Amino acid sequence: MIKLVYCITRRHGMALEEFSRYWREVHGPIGRRIPGLRRLVQSHPTRQPADLSPPPFDGMAELWFDDLAALEAARRSPEWRASSADEAQFIDGARTALFLTEEHEILPQT
Question: Which of 32, 44, 61, 89 is most buried (CB neighbours < 10 A)?
Answer without folding.
Answer: 61
